[in-house]
């Protein structure tokens, strides 16, 4: 039987693997698991001059839907609010974007689907 602690540990491992996967594709890790007002930022990365807020969504399989289906409008608003707070707290003013990295499978057999600029802040 798995509990919340197991789920958190698995989620943290998947986020570390996701960060490594993105670094291998040219992004630089700035921060992870940044708690901000109303939400959490999974990964904060740099793509050149652009600060990238990456939401990592994981599903062991697609039985309960694809991970990308979990990025609702409410979730987007929470991420935007958390990103604004992060920028303000760190006194940053730079181009930003929101990416989503959908991860399916169980380590070490993971599949990644990276959606660059998945949604806009409004």
UniProtKB/TrEMBL annotation:
Q: Which domain of life is it from?
A: Bacteria
Q: Which Pfam families does the record match to this protein? A: UPF0102 (PF02021)
GO MF, one annotated term: nucleic acid binding
Task: List where this protein forms a coiled coil.
Answer: none
Q: Keywords in UniProt for this one?
A: Endonuclease, Hydrolase, Nuclease
Q: Which InterPro entries match?
A: Restrct_endonuc-II-like, tRNA_endonuc-like_dom_sf, UPF0102_YraN-like
Family membership: Belongs to the UPF0102 family.
- Protein name in the entry: UPF0102 protein FHR97_002428
Organism annotation = Halomonas stenophila
């Amino acid at each position: 039987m798995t509990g919340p602690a197991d789920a958190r540990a698995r989620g943290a491992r998947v986020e570390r693997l996701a960060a490594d996967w993105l670094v291998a594709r040219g992004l630089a890790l700035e921060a992870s698991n940044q708690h901000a007002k109303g939400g959490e930022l999974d990964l904060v990365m740099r793509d050149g001059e652009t600060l990238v807020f990456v939401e990592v969504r994981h599903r062991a399989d697609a039985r309960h839907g694809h991970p990308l289906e979990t990025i609702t409008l409410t979730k987007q608003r929470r991420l935007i609010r958390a990103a604004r707070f992060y920028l303000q707290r760190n006194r940053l003013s730079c181009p930003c974007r929101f990416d989503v990295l959908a991860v399916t499978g169980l380590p070490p057999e993971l599949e990644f689907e990276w959606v660059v600029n998945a949604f806009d802040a409004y």
